[in-house]
UniProtKB/TrEMBL annotation:
<keyword id="KW-0378">Hydrolase</keyword>
<dbReference type="InterPro" id="IPR023430">
    <property type="entry name" value="Pept_HybD-like_dom_sf"/>
</dbReference>
<dbReference type="Pfam" id="PF03418">
    <property type="entry name" value="Peptidase_A25"/>
</dbReference>
<keyword id="KW-0645">Protease</keyword>
<comment type="subunit">
    <text>Homotetramer.</text>
</comment>
<comment type="similarity">
    <text>Belongs to the peptidase A25 family.</text>
</comment>
<comment type="function">
    <text>Initiates the rapid degradation of small, acid-soluble proteins during spore germination.</text>
</comment>
<dbReference type="GO" id="GO:0006508">
    <property type="term" value="P:proteolysis"/>
</dbReference>
<dbReference type="InterPro" id="IPR005080">
    <property type="entry name" value="Peptidase_A25"/>
</dbReference>
<keyword id="KW-0865">Zymogen</keyword>
<protein>
    <recommendedName>
        <fullName>Germination protease</fullName>
        <ecNumber>3.4.24.78</ecNumber>
    </recommendedName>
</protein>
<feature type="propeptide">
    <location>
        <begin position="1"/>
        <end position="13"/>
    </location>
</feature>
<dbReference type="GO" id="GO:0009847">
    <property type="term" value="P:spore germination"/>
</dbReference>
<dbReference type="GO" id="GO:0004222">
    <property type="term" value="F:metalloendopeptidase activity"/>
</dbReference>
């Protein structure tokens, strides 16, 4: 067996994948301290999974704070299908409304995290640049909008490597002046499963750590640090190379065993645990490739679809009096 001191940590930011791993390990659908509910769309391939971490036992199992984690999955997110995107927007906006503060008049700050010059990381800036901002209209041209429109402002703080300023410090300065009821922060994430890349949206009411998707975690953005609730919206746009190679290795072993089921060497490989295989692959790759992440070759086109889905979902969720057909009359 392979001996190693390296910790087994396949990269994922998705509560859904962590929950699935726990269910597989315990061989049960019930995990103490965690409630998991799944709903499937009847018309389109859209699956919504709601995970609530209820207590400290759930926190210990999941490695995430107490709160709600909502995941919408659909392969249609990365396809050029306006009808499917419209339905996904309806689902995402409905779920997002569940996380917003229950208040008649909302003041929302939308924050686009990430690096606009790196395509897999530009989701946040793309979304924050297209949401319907109304704070200036509410103050200076109130007659231009009706009562169904809430107060929304937008911020793209950039990354510390470009600004030299901690992202949380920039946001805190804006929060002190705009005093929002909540922050909606958008960022790119990493997934465990290749099938979920660019096909999954995760929302939570527990905040976010900027740069988490590429393993470059900064200071947490949450209610404790910001002084107001922080709703995180993320899409996995990358996958850790070691995780991808490990999955490929698993499929290769399965294929070899199908062709030569009694081959002793292939049977020995199958007996090596997933942890040992992952650690071995990681130790081989990192000296040559470093901490490398992989994304889709058509990420430029997909990013357009994803940003449109998310900024339209935010617009509808925070302005309950308007729908998707109404948005254009308020947009530039």
């Amino acid at each position: 067996m392979i001996k190693t001191e390296t910790t087994w940590t396949p990269r994922t930011d998705l509560a859904l994948e962590i929950g699935a791993t726990l269910q597989a390990q315990s061989q049960t659908q019930t995990i103490e301290g965690i409630d998991i509910q799944t709903e499937k769309n009847q018309e389109y391939p859209i699956t919504t999974t709601s995970i609530e971490i209820i207590n400290e036992q759930g926190v210990k199992a999941m490695g995430k704070p107490i709160g709600h984690y909502i995941t919408i999955e659909s392969p249609m997110m990365k396809e050029n299908d306006p009808d499917a995107h419209r339905e996904i927007i309806n689902v995402v906006s409905t779920q997002l409304q569940k996380l917003l503060p229950k208040k008649e008049k909302l003041n929302v700050l939308v924050v686009g995290l990430g690096n606009r010059y790196a395509t897999p990381d530009r989701l946040g800036p793309d979304v924050s640049g297209k949401v319907l901002v109304t704070r200036h209209l509410k103050e200076h041209a109130p007659d231009a909008i009706d009562e169904s429109i809430n107060v929304v402002s937008s911020l793209t703080p950039g990354v510390m490597g470009l600004t030299g300023i901690e992202t949380s410090e920039i946001i805190q300065g804006v929060v002190e002046n705009t005093k929002p009821d909540c922050i909606i922060a958008i960022d790119a994430l990493a997934a465990r499963s290749p099938e979920r890349i660019n096909a999954t949206i995760q929302m939570s009411d527990t905040g976010i750590s900027p740069g988490a998707g590429i393993g470059n975690r900064r200071k947490q953005l949450n209610e404790e640090t910001m002084g107001c609730p922080v709703i995180a919206i993320g899409v996995p746009t990358v996958i850790d190379t070691a995780t991808l190679v490990n999955d490929t290795f698993e499929h290769l072993i399965e294929s070899m065993l199908e062709n030569a089921p009694n081959h002793a060497f292939y049977q020995m490989l199958q007996q090596v645990s997933e942890e040992e295989k992952y650690v071995m692959i990681k130790e081989i790759l990192e000296p040559k490739l470093g901490n490398l992440f992989v994304t889709a070759k058509d990420i430029d086109e997909i990013m357009v679809y994803l940003s449109e889905i998310i900024f339209n979902s935010i617009n509808i969720a925070v302005h309950p009096g308007i729908g998707l057909d109404d948005i254009n009359k308020y947009s530039n």
